[in-house]
Predict the 3D structure of the following.
Amino acid sequence: MRQKVMIASIFFLLNTISQIQAQSADSFMVKSAMEESIDAIFKDFDSIAKPGAAVAVMKDGEIVFKKGYGSANLEYDIPVTPSTIFHVASVSKQFTVYSILLLATQGKLSLDDDIRKYIPEVPDFGKLITLRHLATHTSGMRDQWELLGMAGWRNDDVITKEHILKLVTKQKALNFDPGEEYNYCNTGFTLLAEVVARVSGKTFYQFTQEHIFEPLQMTNSQFYDDHERIVRNRAYSYESTKSGYKKSVLSFANVGATSLFTTVEDLSLWGHHLNRPSEKIKPLVEQMNTLAVLNNGKTFNGAYGQFVTPYKGIKQIQHGGADAGYRSYLGRFPDQDITISVFSNFSDSNPASLSLQVADLFLESEIETPKAGKKEKDPKTIVLNSEELAAFENYFWHEKSALSRRIYVKNDTLRYNRGGTNETPLAAIGKNKFMMLNVPGLITVEFKTEAGKDKMVVYQENQPDFIAMAYDYIDPSTIDLKQYQGSFYSEELDTRYEFTPVKGKLVAKHRRNSDIVYQMIKADHFNNRAGIHLHFVRDDTNKISGINVTTGRIRNLWFKKE
């Protein structure tokens, strides 16, 4: 009897072992298939002769996939691994907001405090700028990087916190009243990091080490506030050239808006911490995830140091980063407790796209499939003859962003031209209303006449209306550009440009920057390829007295004619 029992036990044990082996084999097959799919996504990086990338996926508190591709250092053929340290640029901003909110939970400050309470060097613009405004890109302050670039600074210059604070103290005006608009602004986060330092009595590097990185065991993370500090196992950044690659040197020694050094492994821990916060920290994280509200009560996809952008019907909270050749993206799917981190040291890379391709693999069962018949049909088009179409031909000017648009007929089709060959055909859906063709989503263009002036309004879902007024086009070849020559000085930037006409274009010369070529777009208005706009201002005698300069993140920066 005992022998039969022993034989039965042996057979049971062997069967159990066989099942475990089969299950292990199945698991190995699944893992291999997933790795193969992700390898295909990162195939362009999988060579030690190329700049690289790193990816990590954390699910329910466990890293379920991590891998490195390509080279961290092309000079020494050092491969990227999941433990390679990258500069992650603007992904830093959520750590800055988190630090501010930690101090708020301790009663040491409030999001609605005036920034000048803590940094009195910030000029009094006559408008209250709160920490909340700074944390949501709604302060109206001019962006530090565009200001520095205009003043002649480069990425490979050593740029410290002190340099930026001195720049801020010289500012004379805001882009807009605080809370009125959203406009991405790095300056606000440099100021927030300085608030953390002044309130806590520690450097931002020290504060984040003690209150974030050490508690979360993010052992390979730090805010890099010293450009001479040695960091082992870091990746260096690169950009492409016609013959291969070149170094894209970064010498930042400032923190808050940027300069977090971390790994995809460490950032996964951070993502899980935000996806599943403890009860103690939960109110803080909920505040971070809350959409900002403008003065008019409207929201946009910006939260606090991050953005809420649903992906295929699934809630996603994300932020990307780009400095020099570094590119980064952190995407969190809190409902599924999934975090995907993708870093690269190549300027042509697109970690956001790579991350979302990885997300497709892990969220496949939850991605919404569009239901048949649910897609809204485009409006029905009508036919207008050539004479009717020609009635809409005009030039339009968008004052706020200093952008010109041309509407004209070509091959019996009305076209919306943004400059050069960048244009979109329009199809009539009403007597004075059109829709853009060959663009994602529904974008409509309506032409109106108000108070005797022609106006064009572009409507797009989740975007403010683009309202542009007609203006009289002037052929630049008929204009004597010598009237715009001369030296122009900015007291705010302590820098000057010399303008000279060259072959029908206006060329700006600077002691550090390369020459910049501007093309006239209408009387007294010029643009360059980088989107910098010049408005030459005239005095009561019709003489040019100065220039208002506008970029994507700077409006009406004054340069006085000398």
Q: What stands out?
A: The two ends are 111 Å apart (CA to CA). The longest helix spans residues 2-41. The domain at 386-471 is CATH 2.40.128 (Lipocalin). The chain has three domains: 66-362, 386-471, 476-561.
